[in-house]
Amino acid sequence: MSRDALVVGINTYDRLNSLNAPAADGEAIAQILQQHGEFRVTRLPAVKDKENQTIRIGKQTKVSLTQLERAIVQLFKPDGKPPDTALLYFSGHGLRKNLGIQEGFLATSEINPDAGNWGLSLQWLRRLLQESEVRQQIVILDCCYSAEVLNFAEADPGDRGKGRDRCFIAASRSFEVAFEEINSQHSVLTAALLKGLEPKQERWVSNYTLVDLLNQEHHPFPQRPIFANSGEAINLTRKWNSSPANSTVQVSAICPYKGLSYFDCTEADAKLFYGRTALTDELLEKVRSGNFLAVLGASGSGKSSVVRAGLLYQLKLGRRLSGSDTWQLKIFRPGINPLQNLALAFVESELSDIERASQLAKAEELIAKGAVGLGQLFSATQTQRVVLVVDQFEEAFTLCQDVTARQNFFKCLLGALQRNDNKLCLVMTMRGDFFGKCLEQDYGGLAKEIQEHLVTVTPMSREELETAIIKPAEQVNLEVEPELVSQMIADVEGSPGSLPLLQYTLTELWKQKTEERLTLTAYTRLGGVRGTLQTRATEVYESLSPEEQQATKRIFLELTQLGEGTETRRQVFQRDLVSSQYPEAVINKVIQRLADEKLVVTSTLIEKGSGFGQVAVVDVAHEALIRYWSLLRKWIEESRDILRQKRKIEAVAVEWQDRRKAKDYLLQGKRLREAKDFQKQQTENLRLSDLAAEFIQTSVRQTRNNRFRSVGFF
Q1: pLDDT at residue 383 tops 50
Q2: What is the DSSP letter of 318?
Q3: Which of 331, 360, 551, 597 is deepest in the core (most CB within 10 A)?
Q4: Do you find a cis peptide bond into 45, omega within 30 degrees of 0?
């Protein structure tokens, strides 16, 4: 593997103050890269040391713009084969030109701003890096205004799928001057770099471990290095007297795959999350340069996983965007009551129930004021930025039946976005087929915002699929047969919603592993990607008693939200599944079994209007189950018309409840007769909710009272 470095240290200038540190800084960096990184180092300016006949960076030697440009081009775009890794280090003066457009420059010795000669343009450097074929690129700029190179929204760190790994480190922001540390032979940044690059263990120092140290270092200066990392880790230095330590954990008892669950924003999940490096880099760049991001894709394309285990986890680490580890990260799903769930996102989970109740009440009070109140919540946070993620945004359409509440939710979010400048960054994930819903009304410009800040989650490439299959297995010393990898990729390649099926099949294969090996034979026996989920769900169903099977049918029908061509999942209160035919004990037992088999997930929500009372809710593990389990598809088709009528009555009942059970919202006439007829004909599997039954009964009673009044009985 070829590794080249260009190390530049300019002390001497014709029209600027001369510097003391750059040459010494550069020479120290050059030596550590040679000794511990196996880099072929080019020094600029280079002079021969007369005492030991070695090449070093000259302290009094000048560097021209032409010399610097040629050296950088030779590094990143050589005439011959480019190196695998290229590193540019520059220490010297940095300048900023502000004539209508702000530009940053690396100052060479002969620069003369009065004559229009500012030095090497950072915009030119940016374009060169974009065009470079070097796979791993490192740029370290120890000069004033050096972060100008990071201020480019048009450059994608992931390089639009070309597989680039990049590391940018700058001494100061684009509006700051850099510091030299008093009583030190090195600048503030270079001193920290030398400390971080010195290998102390028998393992590689990468760009990610390096920025960890830069984040931890505290200097008595009001300045913190700026950095941006993208792609995979780039190895920089290590001790060469022994082989690197093997960091693979011997934990094959842990399944490295997620089944139907998403990868979450945790260290355990992030370590197993592979195949979305380029997309994660793209999301990080969007968040760095803007304050709104819409992540759209097909159901099962991995939207939630890449936002949680990719974007949010990297922001939490602070390794890819400098300072992001100090940001507040909030995530929630809209659910039935979007504004209440938004308020819940600001409640700290580690507090006591009483403290959480108080915090929730304050958050709800502010959010009731709309965008102004939400803005006050953001302003109260002691952090530079708040990243608010609305996961599964389509729930605002599928689960929230209150049109006014939905409109207020959108208005609140978008209004706060406009009021809080860059303090708030709003991120949303949504199924692509729901974008049309955003166009049905103005919704405060929601559709326009989505179109202007859209990132589409497309199916993984062959290389990404291979990584997603093999790399998690390597983490637990599990072998995957090459023939199995090829067959699985062939079965899912190009399919927009196949990732949950892939993960579920890999999970089932792990359960049947032989001698720490996943085999094609076991895969064929399971029925492949398409058949594994279908087979397992049916096996679980058939293992239940007749009574439990009927309860299972009721549960899954209730958990299915009918759509226009495509069904989605819906959360249901567990208590609403209980009926005279299916008592609480039966429902609880079946749900526990389905949860153990990872077919449903259970959680608790705070019930609206109950103070801080919690209520159990049930949800399908993933919509893939609704799409691919043929038995459930059969139940849905047999019950579609009845389900639609049932949900229609229940939605009107919810609206009646939200209007404080006002008489004006009761049923009457033809609608009441249809509701009564449905109630008489309903089956146990499709029984109306208790609220809907109360709603019909109250409507009947009100109609009877009105009739008595009309004939003079009252």
Answers
A1: yes
A2: T
A3: 551
A4: yes
Bridge partners (DSSP) of residue 297 are 431, 457
Distance in angstroms (rounded) separating the CA atoms of residues 370 and 275 = 39
> From CA 680, how far away is CA 666, in angstroms rounded?
19
CA neighbours closer than 13 Å in the CB half-sphere of residue 206:
16
pTM for this entry:
0.77
CA–CA gap between residue 632 and residue 196 (Å, rounded): 56
Residues 657 and 693 in one domain: yes
Q: Across residues 213-234, what is the average pLDDT?
A: 73
Tokens 């790994």 belong to residue? 165
**CB-CB contact of 620 with 597 (8 Å):** no
Q: Phi, psi at residue 348, to the nearest 5°?
A: -80, 125
Helices (H), 325-426: 338-344, 353-367, 371-380, 395-398, 403-419
Of 425, 457, 489, which one is at a domain's C-terminal end? 457
pLDDT in tens, 71-97: 999 999 999 999 999 999 999 998 888
User: Across the chain, what does the average pLDDT equal?
Assistant: 87
Residues 6+ apart with CB under 8 A from 17: none
The residue among 461, 507, 465, 508 whose CA lies nearest residue 485 is 465
pLDDT, average across residues 268-287: 94
Which CATH number belongs to the domain containing residue 548 in this structure?
1.10.10.10
Query: How far is residue 26's CA from residue 180's CA, in Å, rounded to a whole number?
Result: 14
Find tokens 């890819």 and name the residue: 320
Q: Specify the length of the chain in residues.
A: 714
> Using CA of residue 562, residue 564, residue 569, residue 572, what is the dihedral sign?
negative
Q: Is 468 within the bounds of a domain?
A: no
Query: At 510, which helix (H) or strand (E)?
Result: helix 499-511
In a domain, 526, yes or no: no
pLDDT at 148 over 80: no
For the record, the structure tokens of 559 come out as 């958990």
Least confident range from 32-36, 195-199, 278-282, 696-700: namely 195-199
The mean-pLDDT minimum among 243-247, 447-451, 640-644 falls in 243-247
Residues 417 and 448 in one domain: yes
154-163, 416-425, 521-530, 579-588: which range is least confident on average?
Answer: 154-163
- Please state, in angstroms and rounded to a whole number, the distance separating the CA atoms of residues 340 and 328: 19
> What six digits make up the tokens of 350?
């580690």
Higher pLDDT, 214 or 342: 342
Q: Would you tell me how many other CB atoms lie within 10 Å of the CB of residue 232?
A: 16
The pLDDT confidence band at residue 218, using thresholds 50, 70 and 90, is very low
d(CA 268, CA 252): 14
Q: Rounded to whole angstroms, how far apart are CA atoms 666 and 656? A: 7
Residue 58 has pLDDT above 70, yes or no: yes
Return d(Cα 23, Cα 11) in angstroms, integer: 6
Residue 161 pLDDT greater than 50, yes or no: no
What whole-number distance in Å separates Cα of residue 258 and Cα of residue 502? 10
Amino acid at site 224 = R
Q: What is the DSSP string of 44-58?
A: ESEEE-TTT--EEE-
Whether residue 223 sits in one domain with residue 352: no
Q: Does one domain contain both 220 and 76?
A: yes
Residue 310 belongs to some domain of the structure: yes
What domain range includes position 189? Answer: 3-237
Give the three-state DSSP class for 166: strand
Q: Find the distance separating the first CA and the last CA of the chain, reported in whole Å.
A: 95
Q: How many angstroms separate the Cα of 155 from the Cα of each of 127, 139, 152, 185, 349?
A: 8, 15, 6, 35, 38
